[in-house]
Amino acid sequence: MDSAITTHSSRDRVVAEFQRVRQFSETLCQPLQQDDFQIQSIVQTSPPKWHIAHVSWFFEAFVLPHFNPDYRPFHPQFDYIFNSYYYTHGMMHPRPRRGLLSRPTVDEVYRYRAHVDEQMMQLMEAIDGKAWSELAFRIILGLNHEEQHQELLLMDVKHNFWSNPLKPAYRGDLQTASGNARAMRWVEQAGGVYRIGHGEDEGFAYDNETPRHDLLLSDFRLADRLVTNGEYREFMEDGGYDDPALWLSDGWALLQREAWRHPLYWEQQEDEWLQFTLGGLSPLNPHEPVCHLSYYEADAYARWSGKRLPLEGELEVVLSQQPLSGNFVDRDQLHPAPAGEMGQWFGDLWTWSASPYAAYPGFKPLGGSMGEYNGKFMSNQMVLKGGCCATPTGHTRASYRNFFYPDERWAFTGLRLAEDA
Prior knowledge:
By secondary structure, the protein is of the alpha+beta class.
């Protein structure tokens, strides 16, 4: 989502952004075959068909009937099938069973998208000036929501394809990053009271990024790039997965239960390590950032290296000093790349922080069902920062608060080190 689009933007600009984001979801689906749209490999993922229907459902549930009381849904049961977790709106099909929905067909889902797009275009053209600001806010929220699902779509497709013994590639024409990892450098940051969170005059943000508030930090250092595959292999070869002293209790128990010995998508064939990517299986590049780590693995590596994971506030303070550029989805690699000379701050991989996902002082969720979007998940999850190689450009910022459960690693998650100064 273009971060310059606000509720004060012209209708033409908002309409153009609506069309761009909606089209990009369908562009991401173009490499998929009909059968690929149906797969749900684990509970955390969703079938591509469900993703592209759900983001249309958002507009049908929270925009169209709100401004047009006479609006009639495309299909009376779609509200149940494609609701995700909005209990104040209504009941929903169980998440673990989304992969069982052979109907509606892919073609019908695309007709659903076309119907919603047509109705939205008519609404944006016809709404009077007094209601435009509220409509624009809901459209911008819906487009940011859709971009989140574009990122999830790529993460989910990757796991779906990896679960297939044939290890098919999502795309065989993806660019491959080159370059060698350089030495890690450290950014020094003096302690003090810092303002974090999103300011009201800074454009769009989710409610969980607010309100802006003071945070006290001690002196710290932050690595200017992510930990690499080669560095993580040293941890593995040094018995990192065998030493309980390195692991949080829940992480050690998970290790024993799941028999983890390496990051997700790694596999060893004779003496060679391979990694599954959206471009298929390929030799493991030691210079690329290590990815698809759980919080527990990231934390164990940090302990092994004599460092720690950064706090959320530390990450935000340093990220706010960096230009918003990096390896995002528009670079068309869909895989993390070795760090360049300017460091590695945005894009590539979501960075685990050591901070639990909790409300900021004075936090107030959005009113109505849209308030379920973030606030109710503030329990038992950890904050991540920075965006990843599947993130649309502009869909992240220093204040952006992503969150995952600590055992999850199907997402594009990576590791940055920190230490007390």
